[in-house]
Amino acid sequence: MTDANSRQVALQNLRDFQEMSYADVYALIRQKRFGEAKTKYAAVLKSMGIELFSAALTVNITSSHDVLLECMSTIASSVSEPEKIRAVGFDLSTHAIQHDQNGKLSQGIEVSLYSEDVYDFSNASDEQIQMQCESTASEWQGCFMEIDSVALDGLGQIAQQFQDYEKNQNNLQGIIENEGGAVIVDPNAIARHVAKLLVAIEYHRYMAEFVAEVEVPSQMVFIIGEHDEIEVPIVFYRVGEQDAYIAEQPEIPAVQQNYHT
């Protein structure tokens, strides 16, 4: 095998790792195995010895759930027909990144309210809602009744590290060409992917705890996801019933960690 061919194999290994690890994290999140997922991918990031995204190893959202409740209440009070609210979207988003007066960055989420007029959340099956969540564009995308954003304490440092990396990199696709034109894998891009998975795990842990505590006036669907490719798997909960839940997903094989170049 030529050197160029071996690098092509390494590139394919990278893509395979990204796809498998994302699917693995998605399954663990749906099963609420957050501690296991965090330990697993923190070990992957540590083994790479790359300091660029070190904040992902200790990421911890500390915001009170009251900040989300207050945001929901505020935007609900501004809609003309609040009784029609049947879903709330919570999207980790670059649109919700803010800087304080000292220039310190904080990462936030967008909170969107959706009406039964845009999608029949109440009567749709779990499979139908899941299909919408996994589609390129759901039927309710962009059709919110009202939207606002709220900052979450604990994600600012890693968000800053992501921004610094993107500002200083010419190629964010995980591919580098050497002087001879051969394609090789960028180890920093691999580490960035794993760091984003760790953010996703922590975000879903925080939101699962919020969902377990929240009380709503009627049955609703909470859609937990992302905007702008922060790599957060989209899951949904039905709330306002005796127990909020998400459908279980079967175990999938363990990821083969062949992420080295």
Task: Kindly describe this structure.
With 261 residues, this protein is an alpha+beta fold. It has one domain (3-239). The protein contains 6 helices and 7 strands; from the N terminus they run αααββαβαββαββ. The strands form 2 sheets. A 5-stranded mixed beta sheet has the order 3-2-1-6-7, with helices on both faces. Strands 4-5 form a two-stranded antiparallel sheet. α1 (3-30) runs parallel beside α6 and α2 (34-48) runs antiparallel to α6 (187-213). The radius of gyration is 20 Å and the shape is globular. The chain starts with a helix and ends in a 22-residue tail after the last strand. The relative contact order is 0.22.
Give a brief description.
With 261 residues, the protein is α+β, with helices and mostly antiparallel strands. It has helices spanning 3-30, 34-48, 66-76, 126-134, 156-168, 187-213; strands at 85-99, 105-115, 146-152, 175-177, 183-185, 220-227, 235-239.
Kindly provide the radius of gyration, computed on alpha-carbon positions and rounded to a whole number of angstroms.
20 Å
Give the strand tally.
7
Structural class: alpha+beta
Per the principal axes of the C-alpha atoms, what is the gross shape?
Answer: globular
Helix-strand topology string: HHHEEHEHEEHEE
Q: How can the largest sheet be summarized?
A: 5 strands, mixed
Percent helix, as a range, is: 25-40%
Record keyword descriptors for this entry.
261 residues; alpha+beta; 5-stranded mixed beta sheet; two-stranded antiparallel ribbon
Lay out the secondary structure.
Elements: H1 3-30, H2 34-48, H3 66-76, E1 85-99, E2 105-115, H4 126-134, E3 146-152, H5 156-168, E4 175-177, E5 183-185, H6 187-213, E6 220-227, E7 235-239
Helix pairs in contact: 1-6, 2-6
